[in-house]
Amino acid sequence: MGVEPDVISDKMAQLRAQYALKIDDHGNHLQALIKRLDGADAAVRGEILKEISDACHKLAGSGATFGFPGVTAHARDMEQMCIEGLKTDFDLGQDQGFSQRLEDLCLRLRQASAHQSPPPGKAPENIPSSRPQLHDSTRKKVLFVMEYTGPTAMQVLLEMDHFGFEARIIGHPAKLLDDLQNNGCVDAIVTGLVFNNDEGVAHAAIEKLRQDPVYQDIPIVVLTTLENMAARLAAVRMGVKAYMVKPVDMADLVDVLDRVTRRSQTEPFRVLIVDDDESLAYHTELVLEAAGMKTRVTADPVNIFEDLDEFSPELILLDLYMPGCVGQELAAVIRQREEYAGIPIVFLSGEADKSKQLSAMEMGGDDFLTKPIHSTHLISSVRIRVTRFRKLRSFMLRDSMTGLFNHTSTKQFLDTEIARVQRSTEKLAFVALDIDHFKNVNDSYGHAVGDRVIKSLARLLRQRLRGADLIGRMGGEEFAVIMPESDLDQAVLVFDQIREAFSEIIFHANETQFHVTISCGVAEFSHHRSATQVSDAADKALYAAKHAGRNQVVKASIQ
C-alpha cells in the first residue's frame, strides 16, 4: 500500500530543509575552490575547474527537485563556465573577471536557497496497490443488467454467479440512478439497449449517469443486434466500454466483463534506485513509494547483483555519474547477466548533453530522464516502462490460451517461493488439479468445446483466488496453484468451493448441455523438504482423488 500522503509531506519538508542547509555547505566549498584559482598553474587550475564543474553538475540536478529552481539555474551557469574554461585552457591571469564572475554566481546560488521558500510538501497522487488479503476478502463484482427479462435474465444471473459476478436485474432504464444509489458499489452495467431514436429513455439514463461524478466511471457493456458504424460511434460517444453484437456467447461476455472491471494492480511495481547522492535517492524513493511502488536504494554499484537477486526489480533507475563506476558501465555489466537482460534501465541524471545521453543508452539503457524531473513525470515514466515490461514478460511466462503461467514458469515460481518461505515463518500451499474425464469432453463435443472448458476453469481460478496466488497451466487439462501465506486446511477449503462452483457451470455444445468436474490434491510445504517433494505430494494426492471417484479435494500425506 502506498505511504500515507501526510507522512510523505512531512518527510519531503524535512528533506528540503536538510537540503537547504547542505547548499550552504556546498557554497562554502565552491567559494574556497574559486579562491584557489587565482595564481594556480595550468595543471592545478584544470583540476580545480573539474572539481567545481562536478559539484555544480550535482547541484544543477538536485536544486529544482527539492524546490529551488534558482539553485539549478545558477549551478548550470557555473558548470558551463568551467566547461568552457577547460576547453579553451585560457590563462586566468589574462581574464581577471573569470574568478569574480564565478564567485558572483556562487553568491546568487546561495541566495536562491536562503531567500526562496520551497513549496509546501505535497505527496504525489497515491495509487492503491495493496496486497490482497486472505481468501475470504475477495468480494463478487456487482453487475447491473438492464432490459433483460424471463429466461435470458435467469441465465445471466446463473452464469455470472459462477464466475464471480453478482448480477442484479433492472427492469427499466429510468430506474438506473435510483437503483445505483440503493445498491452501493456497482462494477459494471450490461444493457441490451439499441442505439436509435426509439431508445430515448435509455439514452437519457446513461447521459444522466455520465454527468454524475459518483457513477460516471462505471463501465457499460452493450449487447445489441446492430452492426453498423453509426451505432458503434453513438456507443463510443456515450462512453460505452464494450460493444458486442448478438448472439453473444456467455464465455465471451465474461471475458469482456473481466477486462472492463479489472481492478488495479495487485502487486506494486518494484524499482531499484542506484544513486550515490543520498538526498536525491531518498527523494526519488519517497516520490515512488507515495505512488504505491516498492523501492530499494543502493549507492554502491559493487553490490548490484546482490540487490538484483534479492529484490527482483522491474525497473532500474540509474545515475550516470558515480564514483568508481559510471552508469553506462554498470548498465553494460547488468546486461551481461541473461536473467536481467530485459529489465528496463532508465538513466536519471543531470546530464543535458544529448550525445552523452545517447552514448549511455547504447551501453544498455532504455530511456534517459534529465534531472530535475517533476514527480508526476517520473511516476508516469516508471509506470509506463514497468507496465510494458510486465506485458512483454507475460508473453514469455504465460500459456497463450488461458493467460495463466506456463509449466516452466510455474515450476520456477515454486522454487522462488519456497526459497522465500525458508527464510521466514510463512506458510505455503501447493495445489495440483485437473479436469475429470476431459478426453470424453473432447471426444463427445470436439476440441473447440474442450478449449472452452479449459478457459472457463482458468477464468474461475483467476476470479476465486487472490492476486498473490500463482496459477499455472501445466499442460492439457492439468493446472497447479502456489498459495503463499496459506496452510493445508485453508487451501482445501478454498478449492472445495472452487470445485463445487465449477461443477455447477453449464456448458453448451450445439443443443446439448453438460457439466464437468475437477479433482484436486493439496500439499503444504512445511510438511515436505523441497519444491520437488511438495509438488510430488500434491500429485499423489490428486491421483488419490481420481481413484476415490473424482470431483473431490484430497490432502497430501504428511511426511
Strand order of the largest sheet: 2-1-3-4-5
Relative strand content: 15-25%
The CATH superfamily name of the largest domain is Reverse transcriptase/Diguanylate cyclase domain
- The helix tally amounts to 19
CATH architectural type of the largest domain = 2-Layer Sandwich
Largest sheet: 5 strands, parallel
Number of domains: 4
Helix content: 40-55%
CATH topology of the largest domain: Alpha-Beta Plaits
Distance between the termini: 38 Å
Q: What value does the Rg take, in angstroms? A: 31 Å
Instruction: Return the structural class.
Output: alpha/beta
Task: Describe the oligomeric state of these chains in a short phrase.
Answer: single chain
Residue windows where pLDDT falls under 50 for at least 5 positions: 117-137
Q: Which whole number gives the mean pLDDT? A: 81
Shape: elongated
CATH class of the largest domain: Alpha Beta
Total number of beta strands: 17
Descriptive overview:
It is built from 19 helices and 17 strands. The protein has 559 residues and is α/β, with parallel strands linked by helices. The chain has 4 domains: 5-115, Four Helix Bundle (Hemerythrin (Met), subunit A); 135-260, Rossmann fold (3-Layer(aba) Sandwich); 270-396, Rossmann fold (3-Layer(aba) Sandwich), CATH 3.40.50; 398-555, Alpha-Beta Plaits (2-Layer Sandwich), CATH 3.30.70. α2 runs antiparallel to α3. 36% of the residues are buried.
Which helices and strands, and how do they pair?
Elements (H helix, E strand, L loop, with lengths): L4 H33 L4 H21 L6 H20 L8 H19 L25 E6 L3 H13 L2 E6 L5 H8 L4 E4 L8 H12 L8 E5 L4 H9 L4 E4 L4 H11 L9 E5 L3 H13 L3 E5 L5 H8 L3 E4 L8 H9 L9 E5 L4 H9 L4 E4 L4 H23 L9 H16 L5 E8 L2 H8 L1 H18 L5 E6 L2 E7 L3 H16 L3 E3 L2 E3 L3 E7 L6 H17 L5 E3 L4
Parallel strand pairs: 1-2, 1-3, 3-4, 4-5, 6-7, 6-8, 8-9, 9-10, 16-17
Antiparallel strand pairs: 11-13, 11-16, 12-13, 14-15
Helix pairs in contact: 1-2, 1-4, 1-10, 2-3, 3-4, 16-17
